[in-house]
Amino acid sequence: SLRSARRGAAAAGAAGTGILASVAVTEAGLRLRQGRWADAKRLATEAIALLDGKTTSADDTGVRADALRYHDIAAGELEGDAAMVNLTRALELYDEVNDELSRSKVLNVLGARAYYRGEWSEAASLYGQAQVAALVLVEQHAQAAHRAGVHVLRQVDHDLVARQHLHGRRPVGRGGAHH
Length: 179
Known about the structure:
Elements: H1 2-11, H2 17-33, H3 37-51, H4 58-79, H5 87-96, H6 100-116, H7 120-147, H8 155-166
Helix pairs in contact: 1-2, 2-3, 2-4, 3-4, 4-5, 5-6, 6-7
């Protein structure tokens, strides 16, 4: 359980700091999904404090970035956009560890906030950046799968199938054979 992990990491002293922060971030993420904003913010703040100036690995950097992101999502729900002060730093940290998925999530949050403030151009730009980050991730996975010898359905193939389906046609595979 998370409670047991917390006790074990705390008992490990300084060596357990990263684990303790990771547990706090996991709990914060759970509280966000439950709509328990104050608890999520408190747990994210705890993780931020645990790792403040102590991030020595890519894992710690990713945990710190997640904590900053979770903090701002919860703070935004509790206090409004003005309380979302850490997302830019989270974005920088995700860039450091090459985490395109989380980068895309931050850009999407920023885009949604801009949209609801009526800043349409800013929202469109941020959503576009989020899409690019997600596509970079898809390409990274496709390359890794290719290196492993796995066939991957590319986005272009998916878009073709989706358009054909939208227009009431059966998808046609390469070479003209129907699936």
